[in-house]
Specification:
cytoplasm; 6-stranded antiparallel barrel; alpha/beta; 339 residues; Thrombin, subunit H; QueA-like; 2 domains
Amino acid sequence: MSEYLCDYHVDIPAELIAQEPLAQRDASRLLVLSRALAPAIVGESTFSRLSEYLRPGDLLVFNDTRVIPARLKGRKSTGGAVEIFLVEPCAPRCWRVLTRGKKLVPGTLVHIGDGVEAVIEERDGEMAVARFSVDDQELFACGAIPLPPYIKREADSRDNQRYQSVFAARDGAVAAPTASLHFTSAIVEGLRQRGVRTATITLHVGLGTFLPVKSERIDEHRMHSEHFHVPAQTLDLVADTRRSGGRVIAVGTTVVRALESCFGHTPLRTGGSTDIFIRPGYSFAVIDGMVTNFHLPDSTLILLVSAFYGRENIQQIYQYAVSQRYRFFSYGDGMLFLP
């Protein structure tokens, strides 16, 4: 087990980074793997056939967070262009934000839309606190979906739907829980017919999801905290699944982090903020499997899947995925890790 980030690096050709969603969500390719058989490939299919690899009594857990239109464009009274990126609310009509523009000091007024204004109230390095003239829903109407920086285009009307999962219900994320983007109502119905149950948690994906690990020693990295909640119904379903011999399968790394933040404590911690950093050497408390996309090099997500599947195994699987021209990152293909 290496403590150095360079040992987890993977090279992803730029042309394999998906810039657009596929015409159909469930047409994404699915690479099926097993921890017990690693690094052998169990199967290759599409997400439309996911249920074939699951068993009656299994439980899939999804993140029901909804991506907010966090990217706002405006102008100062002097005419200078400004971009404001909503990070998290801190009071009614008040948000912690990232800003882009010149001389955005406390007291600066920014005109965003018809009757929508912001005043910069505090500044702390790259971060600021902005107070807005309208409530959140009116503010969101002025914003755009914040696509990740590796998608080299502006967000358009397609992204309003496709960068949200079919489970999205609770506003708060600034990035999508991308593993769930492959799921459709037809897939969920197929799971139900097979006897696979589903549940949800909420973890509002934060700004840290875009940030690489910059320290060469992994243990020197500090995670950004994110808000999560595990409802009572999900707690009951997880407990019942484990009693009956089913498998708890997290759909996405955000679900892994929420469930492990909850079940990794005694007594159970069902909500609040979590900065859990799952990396090689971590002992998983509750999950048996995982659905996940292919992740950014040098990210905490690569470290998380390496903790679950093994560093060398992940290296081999990513090399295979590159050789077979899988699509990478948010709008790309995915993997199913089984026990």
